[in-house]
Pantothenate synthetase
Amino acid sequence: MNAPLPVVRDVPSLRNEIAAWRKAGLRVGLVPTMGALHEGHLSLVRTAKEKADRVVTTLFVNPRQFAPHEDFERYPRDEAGDSAMLASAGCDLLYAPDRAVMYPEGFATNVIVTDVSTPLEGEFRPHFFGGVATVVSKLLLQSLPDAAFFGEKDYQQLQVIKRMTRDLDIPVAIEGCATVRESDGLAMSSRNAYLNADERKIAARLNLIMHDAIKAARAGAAIASAEAQASRHITAAGFTSVDYIAIRDAETLAPITDLSRPARILAAAWLGKTRLIDNMAV
Amino acid sequence: MNAPLPVVRDVPSLRNEIAAWRKAGLRVGLVPTMGALHEGHLSLVRTAKEKADRVVTTLFVNPRQFAPHEDFERYPRDEAGDSAMLASAGCDLLYAPDRAVMYPEGFATNVIVTDVSTPLEGEFRPHFFGGVATVVSKLLLQSLPDAAFFGEKDYQQLQVIKRMTRDLDIPVAIEGCATVRESDGLAMSSRNAYLNADERKIAARLNLIMHDAIKAARAGAAIASAEAQASRHITAAGFTSVDYIAIRDAETLAPITDLSRPARILAAAWLGKTRLIDNMAV
């Protein structure tokens, strides 16, 4: 059994811990999360621990990245369970601020990224990236780690955070880490916990359909027809609806007509009230 | 004659200089400017030098805080003159980035402060505070000084910067410094250089009319009528037009109906094509 993970809940305590590490010449890695941890998060912690001497994981379910009709209230929360998992993965400190620490009275600032945040998720969740960019800039500036680690599972989010960090000159390296998948290829996600047994089986079809679309595009199918066919397959597999399945420029997420530059396939689809996303290199 | 002031023009060079000072245990103060320096700026440098061991002054005429019809092109520029004045005031380093350093290809991030940025200047210059908050967050994060010094001459800007710095957890103390005035009370401003001799005489009336409005409000006049009378006096003094003259809450800049909390009088008025602003504690 591991020793319990130390936890801090305010910015001065967080900065004190990190300042002590820095004074000792240690490199610090940050893993921002909304809790409800799974193996995907733990792989971020392990990667961070390989690349830094000390790892801080943040746990904050950020209300500003949920629209009023979204699942903020029912989003899974289990700090004790998360804390035990983090300790076993080599995390050194949990930072779990409450809402008043993150958004004090009179809070009035938003970090808005245009361009890369506009299509795909930006179209279907217009509040999302403003909320993400604002909270991530805060978490980075509260802790000022050497590097921060984000999963490629949220690929567009990763691109938005990279752009925001470069544009604002936040002195932190942003590292993307490969998506961790279940044995049937389903991308791990805190929201998978919402799925019933039938939905869970259907969910596993998404990554296979994306692989097929990649194959079709690489074999010379027009991008638009590979996308359209994949969309039909997702619905046929039993998904309730498809928000998008798109092959895009891997950096800007702009539409493309051929594979001459690095490309990425990204998808979002609904199973009942649960929205799943996934992406892969083409 | 002073030794020439060292200058850096990119972020790595700036960070190298500051890292060396930090390693030596020195406190660093930052004075962001758009150049065209006058005694007001130099007083910021002197205050910074009293409160810190080393002072960096930034010189960047920020295109993003000018609307297309505003005076970006004709804004006065004299880096050699500015540099000599800074050296004599005790500045240790000039940071003068060009546009490509501040806004590289693909720049897509804006820092937007609502609330305190909405009235007054926000109403008449809707692009202004977005441009200011974005560039100041960049300058603070490029240099990460212990403290940054801003003039109260741009009082609303100072409040916006304080809010933004607190909201984003930028680890820099923001210090406001008193407005420096000419012998006739005119607030020093780089834009005073636009005034001809006749306009210069009229300009000096603004601060006197503001003092009268403060007296009237303190003597019990209704806020709205003190404002209306002051506005009439500004026009009668020969100003071309009045954008606003308003007595507001000193922190939020919200309208008030009495002087039970700290208040500030703020004004903006035009002399020909030159826009002057001023403010005072009530």
